[in-house]
Amino acid sequence: MKMSWIRGMGLLVATLGLAACGGPIEEESVTDVTSTEQALRMCDLQGRCGTNEVCVGGPGGTCYPCGKYPQYCELAR
């Protein structure tokens, strides 16, 4: 009887441990990032973008929204 109780506790701990892990972290593939960036609009002829966006690459470059791409907005400051 004592062995089944210990085995049951071990099974419970293992199950809870696996449930807490949440599985592997999925990262965006390179093609997903590229297609997302292609959907962004271009900077105007003066190298400007809209509010809360930063122009990367000067006139004709890409406008990156600060909310989705904060790394570009931090570089521009």
TrEMBL record:
Signal peptide region: 1-19
Keywords noted in UniProt: Signal
Name of this protein: Lipoprotein
Organism: Cystobacter ferrugineus
